[in-house]
Design goal:
Blueprint: E1 10-12, H1 15-18, E2 19-21, E3 24-25, E4 29-37, E5 41-48, E6 54-61, H2 62-68, H3 71-83, E7 92-97, E8 101-107, E9 112-113, H4 114-118, H5 125-144, E10 147-148, E11 157-159, E12 165-167, E13 174-175, H6 197-200, H7 207-224, H8 234-243, H9 254-263, H10 274-278, H11 281-284, H12 301-304, H13 311-316, H14 323-327, E14 334-341, H15 345-357, E15 362-368, E16 371-376, E17 381-389, E18 395-403, H16 408-421
Parallel strand pairs: 1-7
Antiparallel strand pairs: 2-3, 3-4, 4-5, 5-6, 6-8, 7-8, 9-11, 10-13, 11-12, 14-18, 15-16, 16-17, 17-18
Helix pairs in contact: 5-7
Catalytic activity: L-threonyl-[protein] + ATP = O-phospho-L-threonyl-[protein] + ADP + H(+); L-seryl-[protein] + ATP = O-phospho-L-seryl-[protein] + ADP + H(+)
EC number: 2.7.11.1
Protein name: non-specific serine/threonine protein kinase
Length: 428
């Protein structure tokens, strides 16, 4: 059975094989205690039996998803989590699936929900600022990748073992491909106390500005210990949100009052932007830009040590078993090509590297024995090439392309690189 550690790949496994013992998933993850339940999913703590790594596994019932009409939502959540690689966002490690369930294997946030800590009392202004800086770093990153969360709240913010913030639950998120011709999103969603006034107006809204509003609510809650807009009568609360009517606690500093007012501006056209947030004097105090390596197509660690693909591996690449065919519908910018070659993997990598050197607007980002990652000089696309040995003489070459400007990689791969590499294809 293949073990896939790469969040751009999926494994389908038989129903009988998924639970190899009373508490083991796929013979790989030892299932622990239940962490939480949702409408169609349960989240468990688990441990990778090979590495000892703690993970969280979200088990989604396909039947409940189908009955509730949430198929597209689940697909989109996986697509979105595949796009995001940021230290303040919960990482999707892999996806397993059976006929009845889909399993999200995710990074485990040992510190639990931020909401639990807030419930014990408000934070100091310095601690509030620290968490808000991490939140904005992650939200700004999401927006740069064309992702809008749309349900930011303390319950969807987790803490790791070092009490650093991690955004989770992208089930209500939107991607830029959903934006209508008017440049706006129109789906009504979110949590009442955190919803932006423009969503209440039902006239369309900018996903980035909605997230900024929710960040403003979170900032207020961290600092004050309670919500700025709260009333048992939902219509009264919505009226206050729409008008932007709230009060500050007496301990709020002048700079923080001014900053929160810019975040909770009921007019989205004049509301502060993420770029303006980062340059605000209150926000900038002690701020250090978060450095990280954003790897769009991570190397498949498990496949690196495997000599040849087995029968299951080969079947899983076919359209009938490859779950990426099912889940990639919401992300047309990802495209895959595969071919068989009798050239040695190192020679294939060498040929690709040589041709890249002769081609403009593309560079080698990273390489290994059986894999190479290419990217545009301005970061507008990524091309991932993975080589899977079949026998001593044959290998399957898988090429994945992701664009951040639509169609850019087509010109590089199809028009410039592929014509120079087509002789690598096994023709017998």
């Amino acid at each position: 059975m293949p073990e896939v550690e790469d969040n751009s790949s999926y494994s389908t496994i038989s129903e009988s094989a998924v639970i190899s013992s009373a508490n083991t998933l796929s013979g790989k993850y030892e299932i622990g205690k239940l962490l939480g339940c949702g409408a169609f999913a349960k989240v468990f703590h688990a441990r990778n039996v090979r590495t000892g790594q703690s993970v969280a596994i979200k088990a989604v019932s396909k039947q409940k998803v189908l009955k509730g009409g949430f198929v597209e939502q689940v697909k989109r959540e996986i697509v979105i989590m595949r796009r995001l690689h940021h230290p303040n966002i919960v990482k999707l490690i892999e996806v397993l699936a059976t006929k009845t369930k889909v399993y999200f294997v995710m990074e485990f946030a040992k510190g639990g929900e931020l909401f639990t800590r807030i419930a014990k009392g408000r934070f100091s202004e310095d601690l509030t600022r620290r968490y808000f800086q991490q939140l904005i770093s992650a939200v700004g990153y999401c927006h740069s990748r064309g992702v809008f969360h749309r349900d930011l709240k303390p319950e969807n913010l987790l803490l790791d073992e070092n009490y650093n913030l991690k955004i989770t639950d992208f089930g209500l998120s939107a991607v830029k491909e959903q934006i209508r011709p008017d440049g706006l999103l129109h789906t009504l969603c979110g949590t009442p106390a955190y919803v932006a006034p423009e969503i209440l107006a039902k006239k369309g809204y900018d996903g980035a500005k909605v997230d900024v509003w929710s960040c403003g609510i979170i900032l207020y809650v961290l600092h004050a210990g309670y919500l700025p807009f709260n009333d048992p009568n939902l219509m009264v609360m919505y009226h206050r949100i729409y008008k932007g009517e709230f009060r500050f606690p007496k301990w709020t500093s002048v700079d923080l009052r001014r900053f929160i007012c810019r975040l909770l501006d009921p007019n989205p056209d004049t509301r502060i932007t993420v770029d303006e947030i980062i340059n605000d004097p209150w926000f900038k105090k002690g701020y250090k830009e978060i450095k990280f390596h954003d790897e769009d197509f991570e190397f498949k660690e498990e496949s690196q040590g495997k000599k040849f693909l087995n029968a299951f591996d080969i079947i899983s690449f076919s359209s009938g078993f490859d779950l990426s065919v099912l889940f990639d519908e919401a992300e047309p910018s990802v495209r895959r090509d595969r071919f068989i070659s009798e050239e040695r993997p190192e020679k294939i990598i060498e040929r690709i590297e040589d041709e890249v050197g002769r081609t403009g607007n593309v560079k080698v980002k990273k390489k290994r024995e059986n894999a190479i990652r290419l990217e545009g000089h301005n970061g507008n696309f990524v091309i991932a090439v993975d080589i899977h040995p079949l026998t001593e003489q044959l290998a399957m070459v898988e090429v994945q392309r992701r664009d951040f400007n639509v169609g850019t990689s087509d010109e590089i791969w199809e028009d410039k690189l592929w014509p120079k590499l087509s002789d690598l294809v096994y023709k017998r």
